[in-house]
Amino acid sequence: MAESFAVKLEERCYLPDPRCRANARVPDYAREYSEFVRDPEAFWDRIAQELEWYGPWERVREWNYPYAKWFVSAKLNITTNCLDRHVAGPRRDKPAIIWRGEEGEERTYTYGELHREVMRFANGLRSLGVEKGDRVCIYMPLVPELVVAMLACARIGAVHSVVFGGFGADALAMRINDADAKILITADVGYRRGKTIPLREIAKEAVSQTPSIERVVVLRREEPAVEIDPALEVDYASLTAKAAPDCPAEVMDAEDPLFILYTSGSTGAPKGIVHTCGGYAVGTYYTTKCVFDVREDDVYWCTADPGWITGHSYVVYGPLAVGTTVVITEGTPDYPDPGAYWRLVEDLGVTIFYTAPTAIRMFMRYGDEWPAKYDLSTLRVLGSVGEPLNPEAFEWYYHRIGGGQCPIVDTWWQTETGMHMVTTMIGEPMKPGFAGKPIPGAVVDVVDKSGNPVPPGTGGFLVIREPWPSMMRTVHGNDERYCKYWNTIPGCYTAGDLAVKDEDGYIMIIGRADDLIIVAGHNIGTAEVESALVSHEAVAEAAVIGKPDPLKGNVIKAFVTLRVGVSPSDDLTEDLAHHVKKSLGPVAVPAEIEYMDRLPKTRSGKIMRRVLKARELGMDPGDISTLEE
Ligand code: WTA
């Protein structure tokens, strides 16, 4: 790990409209935070009371470093919180999900309808032999059935593992095998920019490498419907149609696993991050309600795909637990034109909008005229997540989308944290470039290697000091990898990000400290891309770095040495790109491939990516005493 370093801080600051502070769910951040610090257990106890439980907790938390339990011995099912309790009250006919397809087609599910769909599909899964604790893999496009599938698993206590529909067959197979999933749920196709993505074909290829999969449920969208293979596949619609309409929720212990979600690791294999039922429900409920300040008549749109944690926590579980109306779309921001998102905001009267900096920078590039064509005056709160929101993008978002009226919550968190950890709560002064302060409920700091806080203006490692309800409980099948998060810096959870604080305690995220590359908000591990490249017959060795990019934050650059007898060519470059795409999916394809005679290595044979990166950026490579020659 690097030593601390000095950082120049921006000095801009926006004072919010005092009205938005007075009306906010958390009207006084400092007071709420000190209430949390005074008694963390009482703080979370109060929040948990707002949810529905089958049985009470004996203790709010049990902290056995580095393992935590929350709401010890309490019983619940997250879906009764997301569905039943709304249906029993005045939200039965309130839209829960409004979906829009690429060509403008629309489907709405009220809470009552979503509840019924979930129960039917849950019974369908049961009829396939799925039981509490079984793993179910979901590989679907962004359609309402994806949300139904996740909730149906949760309903019967099956552990879902959603794999983003942009991943390739090998990436999917690796995740299915790691989780030992019994059932795969997919669709014939996804639609993207007027083209179809053959999800079922990719799934078939993956399943040929996954002995644990017993059945594949296929949602058929194309007409005429594709024929399915009765030995392996089950039709989604007939499974649901045949199923009984009523499905009582499985009583889950607060510490039973709810889902596994894979994130890139700094070594080859992705990590299956495990989240549990109780703490995750409480953490996502609280942050959705308070960070976004959700009101009864809000129309809430988080643009993330449920294939990522943002979609789990802030498309599905948090917003439905709060009982808001959630917008989802299969469409992309600039198809059929760059006004697509703003048209949707206008048409549906979106009030809360949560997206990624990479999308904001793309909109900036298309120009102000696109948002200007639409009525965006319903917007009330803007959010950002996934990578640093640079000050220029902040300014543009604030003025062009928010009309200078909407607070921006730049939320820092991770797959591992499950919920927001750092942001600027509504009503607090906003500083472009800074995510903000720890949310009430989180103890976040910037420290040196030994865990000592660094002074303002000095960069260091972003850490979390105390356990929090929605923290990951382990890495699936690999406790050792879990423990590494907590024993790298003494006494702290190490997030793997570099950050800096200012005099007021505002935190600016600088970027990753490890071998992860964040491309357009997606986490990509260097090792995964390297091993995909090396699996090509022409490649001897590969090293991958992240290269700063004005639009995507980072792009992947690969350095490749070829096997004897193979020479570089444009055809080969194209072939390598295709090879990575097929194996890992389009998100992991290098933007640039450079051929080299040899890669810089340490004397012990480790590739020095840092040297390649420094050379690429024209920077000093730092200590190269271990370099081979
Ligand atoms: C980065 C996404 C700066 C960070 C929720 C983190 C951010 C990684 C922000 C986790 C933000 C996320 N500002 N960087 N507001 N939010 N990151 O697991 O490097 O997909 O460690 O979770 O994204 O990515 P993940």
TrEMBL record:
Keywords: ATP-binding, Ligase, Nucleotide-binding. It is an enzyme of class 6 (ligase). Belongs to the ATP-dependent AMP-binding enzyme family. GO terms for biological process: acetyl-CoA biosynthetic process from acetate; carbon fixation by 3-hydroxypropionate cycle. It comes from the Archaea. This is Acetate--CoA ligase. PROSITE patterns: AMP_BINDING. Its EC number is 6.2.1.1. GO terms for cellular component: cytosol. It comes from Methanoculleus thermophilus.
